Amino acid sequence: MLAILAAVLFGLALLMELAGFGLGSVVTTGTLTTAGLLCVALHLAGVATDRSRFSRRRRR
């Protein structure tokens, strides 16, 4: 889920850069890129993953 969010943020940053506009002084292409990199880092760290799929259960 975080990887999809990162892709969307990178896409928005690219479109804003190509069109040459910003959404104020706070939301710029730099902040969207930084947010995208944060989402990628969290995804690679394993945040928000379903770990119950991979757990082994003992059978009796």
Could you give the topology of this structure?
Elements: H1 2-19, H2 29-45
Description:
This protein is mainly alpha-helical. The chain is 58% helix and 0% strand. It has two helices and no strands. The protein has helices spanning 2-19, 29-45. Helix 1 (2-19) packs antiparallel against helix 2. The chain is rod-shaped and about 65 Å long. The N and C termini lie far apart (35 Å). The model has no long low-confidence stretch (mean pLDDT 86).
Give helix % range. Answer: 55-70%
- Largest sheet, if any? none
The end-to-end span amounts to 35 Å
What is the mean predicted local confidence, pLDDT?
A: 86
| Cα Rg | 17 Å
**Which percent band covers the strand fraction?**
under 5%
Please state the overall shape, judged from the principal axes of the Cα atoms.
rod-shaped
Based on secondary structure, the structural category is mainly alpha
Number of helices: 2
Strands, count = 0
Oligomeric status of the shown chains? single chain
- Write down the secondary-structure element order: HH
- Spans where pLDDT lies below 50 across 5 or more residues: none
List its salient traits.
transmembrane, membrane, mainly alpha, 2 helices, single chain, 58% helix, rod-shaped, transmembrane helix, 60 residues
Question: What is shown here, in short?
Answer:
The protein has 60 residues and is mainly alpha-helical. It is 58% helix and 0% strand.
